[in-house]
Specification:
Elements (H helix, E strand, L loop, with lengths): L1 H31 L6 H23 L6 H26 L5
Helix pairs in contact: 1-2, 2-3
């Protein structure tokens, strides 16, 4: 069980770091009027576990904090990720209670 928790934390930390960097690059591109990262890419990164890095980047860079549609989709990706991860973790560690 400890090994799977460490793996889960490593995965979330890694994808969150990548997501944080993507937000930083997108914010920089927005300031300079350059080619931007698609919102769908940012959402996919959040959905696959990078939501903590995305949340942190939104605060640090003050990026993607005013677009209501973006935020609604972002929070949906967080909810789906947490639900799927929780479901998988619960039923992989407590199969007799499912």
């Amino acid at each position: 069980m400890v090994d799977s928790l460490l793996l889960l934390f490593f995965f979330y930390g890694s994808i969150s770091l990548v997501t944080f960097c993507f937000y930083g690059v997108d914010k920089s591109a927005a300031k300079r009027g350059k080619h931007r990262i698609r919102e769908s890419i940012l959402h996919l990164l959040s959905l696959f576990g990078g939501w903590f890095g995305a949340l942190l980047a939104q605060k640090v860079f003050r990026h993607k904090t005013k677009k209501r549609r973006f935020l609604v989709v972002f929070w949906l990706t967080v909810a789906v990720n947490v639900a799927v991860t929780g479901y998988g973790f619960y039923f992989s560690h407590f199969p007799n209670f499912g």
